[in-house]
User: Which sequence fits this backbone?
């Protein structure tokens, strides 16, 4: 794969189907607060984003991977071309599609923004992390900051003048955020002196923006231990002058950047705050000791963004593998495998390659549908709040419930699918001449950052299932159940729908087991032992449901087309994605439920010594 050559490809027809036909973008757009938007506008944005992704970001993907970032004179320099791409990205408004016009955005539904993000991230995940983090930090200030802070920071962070980060992790405290040792001392003038070291800070420094605004968790002197004593501070890399411009250095230094397995174009920094006792910050908002709740607003958005990263690379890997399989000839057709004179067949003709490709296709389509469904809930909640608060609560609850699924299942499957793409290529996929090896390396981090997938699983089983007295989970199960009852006798999909029903029943039985264990202190270890498996089960039920829903929509649309219409093949693909998933994935939910019911505690029963070692 030569540097500077775009390898990113995606099927916009697939995105259009999910956005417009399955989730009814046109029924959400055109109504307040999305009055200015319609399907035509959305198509134009996606078409232009795809052009930008292929012409600007795609060619820089391998450049960023090969060059990486470097530190010179205490500052991070990004790979060749990144700075120019940053400027073009913001000039064309791709990062502010769904931002409120109040903050200089275009006010589109979130359903459109997540599809835009898929194209940007799929073409260059490492680059897109920089503006993504700035976007998330700006959202926190917009929601939690004072009017003055909103005016000072938000629009500049959203239009690319300034970057942004979130700073949680410390050398001694990874996921255990409550063990943070960074401190904040009141100065008497409303500012705080910040001191501490943060590690693994994505986009912690770069040369693309005039300033970088850090959101830093720190403990004010005398505050309580643990997460309850943490406060959130706005800490600019450069202090802000009275006229709003960037001023002198604020004693924030780059200790080093990490040399990683992937996303090499993204600077993952060690940041030192206040080494010379000259780092000043201001509290986000006016209330101390609420830093974690404020930071979670950014983290929840970041977790959804990780799911988007996952499907973006999985899709890119799939379409590259598909094109390679159509072009690469090796071996004879399986019906003539004993004939040494038979012509060589394209490897897409081999049954196992077709199995791998359909597996990849089904998962990519299902995970994308799950993400757009979550965004649909966000949009409906925004539209209905203050008009129909009961319906708005339902949509907000589904966002809460689906977020850990999107993050975890999207990221786990991304790594698996990218790895499977290498398998489709064979030995060629393992070398840098083709993009799938980079996709695989880049995608591994997704299951780790923004809260490891086990943290997501514990969030699901320990908090989300019980929210509102379990109502949100019951509503999710009710939505699946209503679909099952409406379609279980369908002549084409009846058996697949019944497989979904069996998986749903297995999921409910496991949920009841988890509830029982939570009431029995002696069985509490079974909850963390089973949480990941349960999250995966629930994700598969959700994806299986959405794939079948898509197939039924496609069948209806296909029936209205002429026999030679090119969309018939596209709609036929929806059918086989759904059937493959129902036949090959959903039965695993029942098996997973049986494994949970075994109540195996061997991982906690085994002694440390029995694990062995040298």
Assistant:
């Amino acid at each position: 794969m030569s540097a500077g050559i775009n390898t990113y490809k995606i099927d916009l027809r697939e995105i259009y189907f999910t956005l417009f036909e399955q989730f009814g973008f046109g029924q959400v757009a055109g109504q307040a607060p999305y009055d200015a938007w319609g399907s035509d506008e959305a198509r134009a944005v996606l078409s232009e984003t795809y052009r930008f992704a292929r012409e600007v970001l795609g060619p820089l993907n391998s450049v960023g991977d090969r060059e990486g970032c470097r530190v010179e004179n205490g500052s991070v320099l990004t790979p060749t071309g990144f700075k120019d791409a940053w400027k073009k990205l913001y000039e064309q408004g791709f990062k502010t599609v769904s931002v409120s016009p109040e903050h200089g955005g275009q006010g589109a539904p979130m359903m459109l923004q997540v599809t835009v993000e898929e194209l940007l991230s799929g073409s260059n995940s490492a680059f897109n992390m920089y503006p993504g983090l700035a976007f998330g930090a700006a959202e926190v200030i917009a929601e939690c900051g004072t009017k003055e802070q909103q005016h000072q920071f938000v629009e500049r962070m959203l239009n690319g003048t300034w970057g942004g980060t979130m700073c949680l992790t410390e050398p001694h405290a990874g996921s255990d955020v409550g063990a943070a040792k960074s401190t904040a001392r009141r100065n008497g003038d409303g500012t705080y002196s910040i001191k501490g070291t943060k590690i693994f800070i994505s986009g912690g420094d770069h040369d693309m923006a005039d300033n970088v605004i850090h959101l830093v968790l720190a403990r004010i002197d005398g505050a309580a231990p643990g997460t309850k004593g943490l406060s959130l501070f706005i800490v600019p890399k450069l202090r802000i002058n009275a006229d709003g411009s960037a001023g002198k250095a604020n004693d924030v230094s780059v200790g080093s950047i990490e040399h990683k397995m992937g996303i090499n174009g993204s600077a993952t920094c060690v940041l030192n705050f206040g080494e010379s006792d000259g780092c000043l910050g201001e509290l986000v908002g006016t209330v101390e000791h609420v830093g974690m709740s404020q930071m979670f607003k950014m983290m929840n958005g970041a977790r959804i963004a990780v799911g988007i990263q996952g499907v973006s690379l999985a899709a890119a890997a799939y379409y590259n593998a598909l094109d390679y399989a159509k072009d690469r000839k090796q071996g004879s057709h399986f019906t003539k495998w004993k004939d040494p004179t038979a012509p060589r067949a394209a490897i897409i003709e081999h049954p196992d390659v077709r199995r791998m490709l359909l597996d990849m296709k089904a998962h990519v389509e299902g995970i994308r549908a799950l993400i757009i469904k979550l965004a649909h809930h966000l949009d409906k909640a925004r539209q209905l709040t203050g008009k129909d608060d009961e319906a708005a609560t339902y949509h907000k609850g589904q966002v809460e419930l689906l977020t850990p699924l999107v993050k975890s299942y999207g990221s786990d499957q991304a790594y698996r699918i990218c790895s499977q793409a290498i398998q489709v290529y064979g030995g060629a996929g393992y070398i840098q001449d083709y993009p799938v090896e980079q996709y695989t390396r880049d995608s591994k981090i997704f299951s780790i950052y923004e809260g490891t997938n086990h943290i997501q699983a514990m969030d699901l089983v320990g908090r989300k299932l019980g929210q509102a007295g379990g109502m949100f989970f019951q509503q999710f199960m009710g939505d699946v159940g209503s679909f099952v009852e409406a379609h279980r006798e369908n002549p084409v999909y009846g058996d697949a729908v019944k497989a979904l029903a069996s998986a749903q029943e297995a999921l409910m039985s496991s949920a009841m087991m988890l509830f029982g264990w939570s009431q029995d202190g002696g069985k509490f270890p079974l909850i963390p032992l089973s949480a990941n498996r349960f999250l995966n089960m629930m994700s598969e039920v959700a994806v299986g449901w959405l794939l079948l829903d898509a197939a039924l929509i496609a069948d209806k649309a296909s029936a209205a087309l002429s026999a030679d219409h090119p969309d018939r093949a596209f709609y036929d693909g929806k059918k086989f994605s759904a059937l493959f998933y129902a036949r090959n994935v959903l039965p695993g939910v029942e098996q997973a439920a049986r494994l949970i019911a075994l109540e195996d505690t061997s991982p906690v029963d085994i002694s440390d010594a029995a694990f062995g070692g040298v």
User: Anything to note?
Assistant: The radius of gyration is 25 Å. The chain has a mean pLDDT of 95.
